[in-house]
């Protein structure tokens, strides 16, 4: 189906499918549909593709201000990179890591376990084992169906950990990886079941606490370039930037036509893929209104909060000290620090993260005081040289109109077992796709790609096995 006409002052198109959002999920949906011969229009609110992946040049430094890492289990993403002829490079990890203990003492170490003392380390290993067991039992695909689902979903991750161990330092250290590093919400703000899903989506909690696995590699040219390559491979005129969708109207049955209105154009189609986070669904007026279940479900999800800090130096000075650039400290402003030096760059770049309640306090400061506090935190890990970067930049997706948080949306207490089974169900001609809905690769680009492919296959009528990995 093709054709163009004009309604009033707005350009109007006719396509088989409209995709709302040009992030990895939306572009994979469009790519899959075009390969099957369907005509597609992709409407993107921003002036760029990539969604929560975004690369920028700041004061002459190339920075990935959004999502960036690739882990070995992300087969959908790795397969796409091969298909697109794109390459990756490993994160620098040679040398000792640094741990700042609750008393502020600095410890250099190698290996996978934070040197928190024999008793605390034993407790951490035991709790990690318990989470690994639950992740294996429950899995990422239908956690809400497990007999323990309601029990685990009505207790916070903090309460669950308190039931596992009395060791506060063990709990704080594990919180770095689950609360600060992944869900970016305080441990009292999400359920134990949500934590199990996060672990199961990566294969185990052991993988989440292993930065050499979960933060294994980066894409040469930046992760946003994956979306740019997918967009470039589509027919000219498929992707329409600066086109926030304001309304979607469809006939009463799933076979009826859909009309999608954006700021720039109107598209009539048979199907729509809504490929934005659930927290942005309310920005669209749906006619008829979404069913009560969808309305309730969307009100029980929210984004996390994290500030991603980039500091670029004339050289990676920490390597001269025999340090990897990796650091952890549960009571530090920057609870995680990593060497983020670009491929082929002689300069050294650090990336650090300020999450949840720490981010609340940081964002309440003026920019100068916040910078001073962040660089002070980096210096406690790696030395006074960290106080004087050539380039300093904070990426804060909570301030982005078309994101409003990071890294992904998760359910509030009790929401996952109550609504999880329905989050990917089509509503009439509407299909949903984003990393926030993923099983494997939840809140990662890999999960976004899987969900984009799944939504396209729903539309194409291909069999979709929701019990097994896609791709």
Automatic annotation (TrEMBL):
Stored Pfam families: Amino_oxidase
Keywords, sorted A to Z: Oxidoreductase
InterPro entries membership: Amino_oxidase, FAD/NAD-bd_sf, Flavin_amine_oxidase, Flavin_MAO
Residues binding FAD: 44-45, 245
Cofactors, names only: FAD
Single GO molecular function: oxidoreductase activity
Positions that bind substrate: 353
Amine oxidase domain boundaries: 25-460
Sequence similarity: Belongs to the flavin monoamine oxidase family.
Protein name per the record: Putrescine oxidase
Species classification: Bacteria, Bacillati, Actinomycetota, Actinomycetes, Streptosporangiales
């Amino acid at each position: 189906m093709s054709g163009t006409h004009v309604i009033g002052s707005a350009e109007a198109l006719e396509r088989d499918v409209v995709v709302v959002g040009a992030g990895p999920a939306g572009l994979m949906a469009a790519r899959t549909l075009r390969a099957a011969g369907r005509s597609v229009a992709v409407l993107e609110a921003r002036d760029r593709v990539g969604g929560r992946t975004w690369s920028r040049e700041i004061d002459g430094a190339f920075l990935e201000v959004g999502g960036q890492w690739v882990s070995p289990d992300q087969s959908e993403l790795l397969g796409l990179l091969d298909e697109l002829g794109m390459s990756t490079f490993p994160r620098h990890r040679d040398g000792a890591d640094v741990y700042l203990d609750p008393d502020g003492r600095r410890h250099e170490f190698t290996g996978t376990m934070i040197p928190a003392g024999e008793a605390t380390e034993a407790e951490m290993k035991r709790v990690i084992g318990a989470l690994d067991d639950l992740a294996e039992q429950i899995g990422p695909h239908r956690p809400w169906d497990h007999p323990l689902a309601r029990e685990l979903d009505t207790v916070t991750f903090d309460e669950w950990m308190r039931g596992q161990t009395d060791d506060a330092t063990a709990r704080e250290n594990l919180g770095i990886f689950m609360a600060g590093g992944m869900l970016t919400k305080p441990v009292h703000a999400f359920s134990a079941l949500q934590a199990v899903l996060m672990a199961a989506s990566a294969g185990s909690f052991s993988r989440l606490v292993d930065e050499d696995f979960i933060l294994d590699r980066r894409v040469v040219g930046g992760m946003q370039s994956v979306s740019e390559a997918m967009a470039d491979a589509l027919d000219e005129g498929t992707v329409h930037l600066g086109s926030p969708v304001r309304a979607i109207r469809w006939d009463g049955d799933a076979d009826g036509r859909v009309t999608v209105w954006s700021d720039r154009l109107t598209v009539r189609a048979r199907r729509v893929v809504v490929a934005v986070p659930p927290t942005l669904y309310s920005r669209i007026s749906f006619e008829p209104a979404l069913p009560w279940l969808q309305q309730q479900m969307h009100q029980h999800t929210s984004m996390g909060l994290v500030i991603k800090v980039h500091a670029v130096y004339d050289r990676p000075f920490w390597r001269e000290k025999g340090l990897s650039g990796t650091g952890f400290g549960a009571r530090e402003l920057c609870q995680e620090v990593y060497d983020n030096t670009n491929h082929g760059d002689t300069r050294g770049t650090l990336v650090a993260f300020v999450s949840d309640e720490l981010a609340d306090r940081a964002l309440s400061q003026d920019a100068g005081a916040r910078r001073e506090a962040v660089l002070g935190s980096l210096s406690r890990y790696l030395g006074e040289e960290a106080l004087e970067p050539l380039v300093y930049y904070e990426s804060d997706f909570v301030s982005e109109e078309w994101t409003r948080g990071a890294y992904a949306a998760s359910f509030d207490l009790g929401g996952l077992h109550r609504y999880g089974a329905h989050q990917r169900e089509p509503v009439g001609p509407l299909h949903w796709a984003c990393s926030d809905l993923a099983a494997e690769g939840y809140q990662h680009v890999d999960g976004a790609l899987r969900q984009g492919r799944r939504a396209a296959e729903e539309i194409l009528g291909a069999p979709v096995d929701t019990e097994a990995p896609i791709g």
